[in-house]
Design brief:
Blueprint (H helix, E strand, L loop, with lengths): L3 H14 L4 H15 L5 H11 L6 H44 L6 H26 L3 H15 L4 H19 L13 H14 L4 H15 L5 H13 L7 H33 L2 H7 L1 H29 L3 H15 L4 H25 L1
Amino acid sequence: MPGLGEVATLFLKLGAIGFGGPAAHIAMMEDEVVARRGWITRDRFLDLLGATNLIPGPNSTELAIHIGHARAGWRGLVVAGVSFIAPAVVIVTAIAWAYVRFGALPAVGAVLHGVKPVVIAIVVQAVWRLARAAVTTRWMLLLAIASTAAVAAGMNELLLLLLAGGGAWLVRSVRGSGAAPLLIAPFGLIPLFAVFAKIGAVLFGSGYVLLAFLRTDLVERLGWITERQLLDAVAVGQVTPGPVFTTATFIGYLVGGPAGAAAATVGIFLPAFVFVALSGPLIPRIRSSPRAGAALDAVNVASLALMAVVSWQLGTSTLVDTPTILIGIVSFLLLRFRINSAWLILAGATVGLLLLREAAGVTVMQ
């Protein structure tokens, strides 16, 4: 199949360096498949992004699946998704093994201290480029401003997207066309798969929503893990590259070893492949309808507003001292010269480790 190998190579790389959560993953994909490789247009990328925000599941993984399908057909759909997920699954499984063996998480703070400012720069760059393609009218500019303000004020992400899309549909129409809990018995691989498949099939929103679902099912209802183990699992999902949903891999390993990790991982990601396969063929039809196309345009702008607010929130918690501010600024400037984000992330990790070493040396001397 033409393009299958390059799809696998690209998404394996993105899965291995994709620190920073969905906004960062989306930014890296835009840079690689639109700006660098020209696999799809920026408008097409925006449509795929908007579509992923309207179905449950991990947005960045679903976007990878969409891109794989656009580049290499149905095989590409599977290969892109699996390739993007695989590096994180391997890394999280290794951390889970160390956690079970030694009872603690490996230290990753120093690496993240240097990587996070780079991630901020990548996201800001992508939001700017995508906004230039999406915000093409005065109405879209007003929508972008209103959406950003609404998210910053705490509006639910899905509600914002529905209001934006529904409002645009109504405006275009006026102008004319010119879940009950699962009752599952004691632990087993099939019940474990079922729990995570249910979560993957119904979950909208951020990692905080994932935390709430996991706590309700696994801590309170089933008692398979403790509160502390849940928080550690979510932390691992946040600090490792790739999809945050690999939190499921960590939990699966805790309760069922390697087989449990596999069952939980397949369970939580499988719905994403199904939803993309079902919704992907509808996107061209949506775009061809004036009213549905207007709604999709509005959802695209609202999605960028979400990314903008996330980048601001990450920035305020990440750019906290002179080194991180300098890393962020330098990374943003280098991205303007088309430096590959993978090299910037590697450089950021190296700087973080050097800063830790220097701080340790100062402490010993004192």
